[in-house]
Structure formats: C-alpha cells, structure tokens
Amino acid sequence: MRPGPRAAGRPLLVAGPAVRAVQRVTAAALGPYQSAVVRIGFAGAWLLFLLRELPHRRELYGPDGPWSWDMAQQLIAKNGAFTGLMWSDSGVWFEIVYAVAVLSSALLMIGWRTRTMSVLFMFGVLSLQNRSIFMGDGGDNVIHLMAIYLVLTRCGQVWSLDARRAAPGADGARRDRIGPVLWSCLGVFLVIGSATDRIHADLWLVIVFWGVWIGQALWWAANHYAPDGEPRALLDVLANLLHNAALVVIMAEVCLVYATAGWYKIQGSRWQDGTALYYPLKLDYFSPWPELSSLLAASGVIVMLVTYGTVMVQVAFPFTLLNRRVKNVLLACMMLEHAAIAVVLGLPFFSLAMIAADAVFLPTPFLRWLGGRVSGLGNRLFSRPSVSLPEQRSDSPEQSRTLVG
C-alpha cells in the first residue's frame, strides 16, 4: 500500500532541521564580514606594534636583548614552543624574520593572498613572541591565539584584494601566475626545514604547515582540471567546515577571556569594594597622561562605577549572546572600555587586539554600512569613481580559484 502524503512526509519533518543545519555549515563560509574584520584588526594591530618597535627590535627579540639566544634555546627545549628565530643566531636571519613578519602583516591586512599570508603571519607572530616570552602587555596572548585560528578561516571573502581579483570579469580571475610561484618557493623552504629538522615544533603545527601547503596544491589541481567535479566540491565543503569551526572557536575564545577575567575579578577584594581602578591610575607605568589619571583617581564615584561596571559587563557578556540587542549594547560598552584603556592606561595594542576580537560579534548590517562609509570616504579622498567594496565570492563554476589566494 502506497503511503499517503502525510506518512511520506513525516521522516522529512524529522530530518529537515538537521539537514538544513548541515547544509548551512557546509554550503558556505559563514560570517564573511566578521572574519574580514578580525583579519584586518589583528594584522593591523601587529603591524603597528612591529613598526613602533622597529628601532628597538634587536633589544626586544634580537641578539641585543637581555633574554639571550642561549637562554631562549634552553627554555624552548623544555616547553617545545615554535620560533623561527632559533634556527640561527645570525643577525641577518633575525632581520629577515622581522621583515617577513612586517610584510606578511601588511599583506594580510589588505587581503593579498590571504591563505599564504595567514600562514606567514602566524610564522612571524610565533617566531617573535616565543623568542622573548616576557615582552608584551596581554594583547600578545590574544594575537598569538588568533594568528593560529586565522590560518583555518577563509578571511579574504570580502574587503580584500583576493576578493577583487576573484570577482567575475576581473583580469586576475582568469590566470594566476603569482600563486604557483609563491607556492613553489614556500614549498622549497618547507621541505628544507623538515629535512634538516629545523622546524622544531609540535606535531600539530607541522601538520598545519604541510596541510595548508598540500591543500593548496589539491585546490589548484581540482579547480584547474575539474572545476565542476566532485573533488572541487568536496574541497570547498572541507574549507567551509574548517572556516566555520574556526569562527566558532574564536567566538568561544572571546567569551572565555571575558568570563574568566570577570569571575577572577569577583574574587578580588579590591574589585569587591570598588577601588580596583584607583591603583593602576597611580602607577607611573600606566599613566601616560598623569593629569588625566589624577583627575579620574580623585573621583571616588567614577572609580567605583567603572570598577563595578567592568566586572558586570565581563561576567554578563557570554550570557547576552542569547539576546541580540543586549549583546550589541554590551559589545559597544566593551569596545569603548578598551578605547579608554588605550588612552588612560597607555595600552594601545592590547586594546586594539581586544577590539579586533570583539568585532567577531558585530552584526553584519552594521559592518556592511561601515564598509560602505569607508569606501565612500576613500573615494572622496582619492577622487575616484564610487566603487563598492568587493562582496562575498560567488560559488559559480565560472569563478576562478587561485592557488594561494
């Protein structure tokens, strides 16, 4: 007996939500604007830090620093941290690594070959930070983690030169010569580093390096020989899964940072009595504007409100994700708080890193509006015709995929 319409439709009603959920996380890389803001924010923050410390780079991370090469070698032998600066104690090699860190940050920020630049960006961050682990103000820990997560994201879908190059009708979408050359050069260095045991990293990092390199080769081959075939579709699904998983990890990381910071503050007596803000305002190290710090510290009401407000916002933020409007309000409060920390306490790069991390929760309509404003301002400044920022890449077969873009 043939089942009726309702009987035949019941299994579909049960499996429908699950199927739609699977399709949602495999069919597209979610949050293209949020991942682009995270890319621009962290690459820009690290680039500004490297440029500011350019005159002092050798004292911070190089051969002239108090944390000598031998001391760093002993520590890394125990904790297994990765740093390319330990491959050689030559001053020339240090300058090369620092230059790679600066260049990769700049290129990742503008979105040129984002897949390759994200790997080089991670290489530069890990190499410098693990060489001298005592340099930093807290923001370096966030950049350290996000540099690893960005490798797994498709953060160049919008607001990037890659998106402009891959747009339909663009000349760069027809033939890519730079990609294979760049991929080959990096492959030579990877093979030499692995053969001579120069990587000195945990297994997961070796897998990331080789996985990205091999994955790009498979991506190029599938796109070149079978752009409409199943291998190309399978690689696209895997890339979307990695991107979406990494985006969830970034969100969870931000919530974890605020939740742990808030709950630890609750346990402190100075946070409980509302005087915690007073003490850093009286430290010379955190007083770039002594007059402003003294003015704020002199008001007990301001100190109490900011102290209690900081704790409440940090503890409450992870729970506000269930309500979009409340989340957006607290998100704006936290960004303003970090901006105030940058000015009052003199921690600009810590604040930039945290604002970039917070940006993963910004709503898409706001980011699109902000992108339009920035695009319009750039067009007026440079007197160019109005051109909208590149949108999300199309999944059409006619669109070309580059080797390392």
Number of helices: 18
Distance between the termini: 56 Å
Elements, N to C (H/E): HHHHHHHHHHHHHHHHHH
Radius of gyration: 24 Å
Largest beta-sheet details: none
Give the strand tally. 0
Q: Regions with pLDDT < 50 over 5+ consecutive residues?
A: 4-14, 393-405
Helix content: 55-70%
Strand content: under 5%
Judged by helices, strands and strand pairing, the structural class is: mainly alpha
Mean pLDDT: 86
How would you sum up the global shape?
globular
Q: How would you describe the oligomerization state of the chains in this entry?
A: single chain
What can you tell me about this protein's structure?
This protein is mainly α. The protein contains 18 helices and no strands. It has helices at residues 5-27, 32-52, 57-60, 69-79, 91-110, 114-131, 139-151, 161-166, 178-195, 203-225, 230-266, 269-272, 278-281, 290-297, 300-320, 324-344, 348-358, 364-382.
Question: SSE layout and pairings?
Answer:
Elements: H1 5-27, H2 32-52, H3 57-60, H4 69-79, H5 91-110, H6 114-131, H7 139-151, H8 161-166, H9 178-195, H10 203-225, H11 230-266, H12 269-272, H13 278-281, H14 290-297, H15 300-320, H16 324-344, H17 348-358, H18 364-382
List keywords for this structure.
70% helix, mainly alpha, disordered C terminus, 18 helices
Summarize, please.
With 405 residues, the chain is an all-alpha fold.
